[in-house]
Specification:
The chain has 5 domains: 2-110, no CATH class; 123-176, no CATH class; 180-279, Band 7 domain (Tetrahydropterin Synthase, Chain A, 2-Layer Sandwich), CATH 3.30.479.30; 289-321; 325-363, no CATH class. 34% of the residues lie in helices and 35% in strands. It is an alpha+beta fold. A 3-stranded antiparallel β-sheet has the order 3-2-5, with no helix packed on it. The termini are far apart. It has helices at 54-57, 61-66, 210-216, 220-236, 241-246, 248-262, 282-324, 326-342, 355-362, and strands at residues 2-5, 9-15, 18-23, 26-29, 36-42, 67-72, 76-82, 85-90, 93-98, 104-110, 133-138, 142-148, 151-156, 159-164, 170-176, 180-190, 196-207, 268-279.
Length: 363
Amino acid sequence: MKFIIKENERGYLFKNGSFVKVLSSGMHSYLNIFGYNVTRVKLEGEVNTAGLDINVLMKDKGFAESISKINILDNKIALHYVDGRLSNILTSGEYTFWNVFKKHTFEVIDISKPEISKDIDINIFKYMPIKLYTKIEVQEGEVALLYFNSKFQGELRSGLHFFWNYNTKVSHQLVEMKSQQLDISGQEILTTDKVSLRINFVCNYRVTNAVKLIAEIKDYKNQIYILTQLALREYVGKYKFDELLEQKEIIGNLVLAKLIKKQAAYYIEFTEAGIKDIVLPGEIRDIMNTVLIAEKTAQANVISRREEVASTRSLLNTAKLMDENQTLFKLKELEYLERICDKVGTISVSGGNNLLKQLNELL
């Protein structure tokens, strides 16, 4: 019987079910009566062994010269290149590739330790199974605290960082090093004159030592919140309601000074603090509005009386001048006559020399 093997194929020759050899491309003739049979496989990618042990096939010299074989240990991986271009990542195991039409090469990497060699191009990680590595991205103004098996290793600055996590648990914690704003909203505080207020307070701070902060203070943001809250309550509770409204800025500075005294113990630095809003209860707000309306009404009355006095004084001064000066009196009289005449349509007077006197009597 004739067996034709194509150029891109190889044939596994069997006799009575036992492997004999590997057939290259071409036509091969064997008698069926002797139990010969051929299994054809493609010369591409990973070798199809057709269920045979690779070591059996390796006994054929032509086969051994046509393949690339690699055995990867448990604590290593291999970068698989095809014609010089990275194709994929191979984990532990045994691999065999046809090396006829395409050239298969490998680069073995030790992943037993978390640190990644600086010689490794980080672009390979887009081909890497995510289970093999840990990626840590640190933004500008942040610091990452690095841990191997929960043991602190050091700080990571801004950038991309990769670590093998084959047999080591790699973890991290990000800490913001830029200035941060802390808002304390709706704090209900009782003044010395028993007025219940709700105060919104704000302060700015920044971390000065991230390592000690995380190592020594649990849930540091909550701790800073409580510290600021207590300082605010301590000072606000010392003032009466009216004093509090008048001295908001002073109280903010006092609270800030209190916080600065304790900031070293929290490994932070407070930079600003102040009362943002004071929210009054409904009944107090109504009283304040009533007081404000009364004050503005009183101010309006004072201004009105002041203007009336000034107007009366002006009239008195004018009357005195006209009483002392008859010419001025006549001029003023003519001025008013002119204004009145502007509003009258027709006036009839009798002849005579004293026309002005007649107009006065008429009007």
